[in-house]
Amino acid sequence: MGEADSTWDRQRKEFFFDRHPGVFQMVMHYYRTEELHTDQNFCGNIIQGELIFWGLTELDIEPCCWGHYSKYKEHKETLAALDDNFTQQNDEEAWQEKLTGFKRFKHRVWQFMEEPSMSRGAKVSDTIGDVMGVQSSSVG
């Protein structure tokens, strides 16, 4: 770290770190005691970003805090897997390949119901559904 660093404020002649204040307390505690404890109220993604910025690694986290932090990685991987499995891509070329008439019809109905902006009919159907929903909630 020096005056050529992007955190150096030339006018004030001081370093300025615009970092997450809660995680910064953890980092300061680490530099004072050489023990990195994490707060369970912070997202693991935020902690990871701060560790990278301050030149620390996940290996610096104390064993008593590792369980909470490691759950973030497990959850992130699980969510990514779920996203890959359940995200439907509306790639027209993929849908048009080797589709029977029924599957093409099924795809069009799916788009009609899920993407109201796809056609005028879908917009009308969506609007009618909204009006009926509002009307049914106001009656009673």
SSE pattern? EEHHHHHH
Largest sheet: 2 strands, antiparallel
**Strand count:** 2
Report the portion of residues in β strands. under 5%
Structural class: mainly alpha
CATH architecture of the largest domain: 2-Layer Sandwich
The low-confidence parts are none
Quaternary: single chain
Please tell me what the overall shape is: elongated
- The CATH class of the largest domain turns out to be Alpha Beta
Helix content: 55-70%
Query: Radius of gyration, Cα only, in angstroms?
Result: 26 Å
Whole-Å distance between the termini?
68 Å
What is the fold named in CATH at topology level of the largest domain?
Potassium Channel Kv1.1, Chain A
Residue-averaged pLDDT: 80
- Put simply, the count of helices is 6
Biggest sheet, strands in spatial order?
1-2
Question: Can you identify the CATH superfamily of the largest domain?
Answer: Potassium Channel Kv1.1, Chain A
In the residues, how many domains can be counted? 2
Organism: Dreissena polymorpha
Membrane topology: Multi-pass membrane protein
GO molecular function, one term: delayed rectifier potassium channel activity
Protein name: Potassium channel tetramerisation-type BTB domain-containing protein
